[in-house]
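Review form for a predicted model. The reviewer records the input and the model, then writes brief findings.
Reviewer: anonymous (R2)
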Amino acid sequence: MPGSLGGHRAGRLYGRLDCRAALQAIARGGYVKHRVFFRDEATAIVAGYRPCAVCMPAEYARWKSSR
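Model under review:
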């Protein structure tokens, strides 16, 4: 497995590998060329990515309120 979280390089966001929004984008033929993987949430955050609002709503709410 490439990591426990997937991310979108162009959007600078990360989420679960089973994220509904990411899987829909992949099914439409997009997203894949910009996909990155992270070992864990801390690694994604250090890399400058934000949580996905769809599959990680609690983490996204915390991120948004801290901005």
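Findings: The mean pLDDT is 93.
Further findings: The radius of gyration is 11 Å.
Recommendation: see findings above.
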